[in-house]
Amino acid sequence: MAGRIPKQFIDELLTRSDIVDVIDSRVPLRKAGKDYKACCPFHEEKTPSFTVSADKQFYHCFGCGVHGSAIGFLMDYDHMSFVEAVEELAARAGLTVPKEAGVAFEKDKDTGADLIELMREAVRFYRQQLREHPQAGRAVEYLKKRGITGEIANEFNLGFAPDGWDNLLRTLGKDGESSPTRSASSSFHKFSREALVRAGLAVKKDSGGYYDRFRDRVMFPIEDHRGRIVAFGGRVIDDVQGSTNAAEDGMSGASKGGPKYLNSPETPLFHKGRELYGLFHARDAIKRENRVMVVEGYMDVVALAQFGIDFAVATLGTATTRDHLERLFRHAPEVIFCFDGDRAGREAAWRALENALPVLREGRQISFLFLPDGEDPDTLVRKEGREAFLARLKTALPLPDYLFDSLSRQVDLGRLDGRARLVELARPLLSKMPAGVLHQMMLDRLAELSRMDPGKLAVSAGAPELHASSSRVFRPASSGPREPPSVVRLAIAMLLQRPDLVRNVHNADALADLDMPGIALLVELLKVVKTTAEPNTASIIENFSDSEHKQNLAKLAFWQHPALEQDLETEFSGVMNRLEEASAWQKTERLLQKKHTGGLSQTEMDELARLLSLKRDNSRLSPSRH
After folding, report:
1. Is residue 487 a contact partner of residue 579, using CB atoms and an 8 Å limit?
2. In 140-201, at which residue ranges do the beta strands (DSSP E only) sit?
3. Rama region for 364: left / alpha / beta (φ>0; ψ in -120 to 50; rest)
4. I need a surface site. Which of 176, 208, 267, 368 has the fewest CB within 10 A?
5. pLDDT tens digits, residue range 31-77?
6. How far apart are CA 434 and CA 123, in angstroms?
7. Positive or negative, the Cα torsion across 318, 322, 327, 328?
8. Could you tell me the pTM of the whole model?
C-alpha cells in the first residue's frame, strides 16, 4: 500500500469497529458487569482475567498485562502486521483504506479476491493431476522414494505440474479480462491469461502468447499467515530434468538444467521476503512448543512434519529477513536456525545472524544448529529418527556464543592487536542491536574477551544512542510547592477512561510550562483527544503506538482508583484546577525572580499583575490549605 494510513482514518475505523465482536469471533467472551471476560488467549490461566471493554474499545489482561485495541488484538492473535490488521477491520466495516493524502483508493485488481480464487483453483488442478494425470506415476514414485506418505502429501496439499506448455493455461485460462467464469466442460473456473501471469502461474512471451511457468514438477503450495495460497514452489522430479520441451524454454528456467526448486516470482500476493513456507500449517505446534525451527527447503519441512517435528518453517529462496524474524517472534520467543554444516550453510547462518541483531530484544532467543556435512534435516531425520534429531536441537549454539566464537576464530586473542581486531570486528555488529540488557551483556562478554574496561568499550563498540523520545525525563520543580505526581496520573487516567471530559478543558496550553512529572504527556494527550472526531480509549492510545508512553497509557485505561469511581466530571474539574493553580504559581515565581535579577518587559509586568490578582482572588474564595 502506497503511503501511510492517515490518523483520521484509524480513528474512524476504531470508532466504527466493535472490539467485542472482533475478539468474540476468535475467543468466546462472557458478560461480566459492563465488560466481557475470557481466559487469556496469550497465557495459560484457569480463572479469567482477560477483560474486554465495549465502552473503551480496549482489552487488557490483568494476569499477563497484554492489552490493546482491535488492531492490536489482530496483530497479536492472528499475527498480522499493522497494515494487514487495518485492512481486515476496514473490510469488516465496509471501508476503503485511503492513502496519506486522504484520497480513497480501491485495492489494485491484482490483490483482489479474483487472484486468491485463482490460486485456490490452481491448487485443485495440481492436486488433481497428481491423482489422475498419465505422467503422475513419476511424481508419486519420486515422493515415495523421498519417504513422503500419501497422508502427509495430502496434509500439505502437494500436487503435480505435468510436462507440457499449456496444461494449466488450457484448464484455467481464457481470452479477455472479464471476471472469472465456470467452464461448461470442467469443474474449474476460468480466468484471463493475464491474471495467470499476474499470479505467477504463467509466463508471457516477448513474441506473444503464454506458457505454463511450472512444468514436470512436484508442486508445493505456499500459504500466507492467514492460510491463503499466495504462491507455489516446484521441485524437479529428477535432479537432471528431462523435459521434452527443454530446448525451447530459455525464459522460465524450469526446463532441463533448470533450478532444483523454482518459486513463484514476486506478485501482488507474494513477497518472498515476508512469507515462510509452512508457517500457517505449523502455527499451533509453534505455540505448543514455544519455539520455531527455520530450515532451508520445503522437503525439510514436510519430512520433519512426517516424523512429528511439526514446528519447522522454511525461507523461500532468500536469506532470512527482518520481516521474517518479526513474524516468527509474534508466534514464539525462540527461533532455531538449522543449516547444513558446509560452507554455504555457515554463510547463510551468518547472514541470518546479521539480519537478526536489530530485532534481538530481551525475551527473544536465537540459536544455530549445524548438521553434519552432507546432511540436511530431511535426510538426517530419516537416518536418526525423531528423538535423536530433537536431541540435536539441545546442542544448538545461542546467537551470542556463535557470534563471539566466529569472530574469535578470526583473531589471535593472545595478542594485544588481536584483541583490538576483535573489538573492531564486533563494533558494526553490536551497534545494530537495540539498547537493553542483552546488548549490555554482549558488551560485557566482549570486554571479557578483549580485556578492556567495559565503560570504555561501550563507547568504542558503538553502544546505540537512546532515542530522543526515550531519553527524555521529567525534571522536578526546583522550588516552591509541588503537586504530587498522582494528580497528573489521575488527570491522564480520567481523560483516557472518559475522553468526553476534554470539553471542560479550555486552556490546555497554560499547562505546557508547568514543571511537573508527566505534564508533557498530559498536554500531548489533551491535544490528541481534542483533535479526534469521536474519541474513545482505543483510538486515543493508538495515536501513541510508536511512543514510549503506550504501555503506561494502556495500564491507566484500566487503572482502578477511588477518584475514578466518583463523579468524574467534578473530580476531573478539581484536578485540572489544581494543575492550573500550580502552573500559575510557578509562572508567578519565575516572573518575580526575573524582576529582582534583570527586570521585566511591560508585557511581563502586566502578566505578573494579572497572576498576583488571580492569586489574591483565589485566596479569598478558597479555604487555606495546610
Report:
1. yes
2. 159-161, 173-174, 181-182, 189-192
3. beta
4. 208
5. 888 889 999 988 877 789 999 998 889 999 988 888 889 999 998 88
6. 42
7. positive
8. 0.61
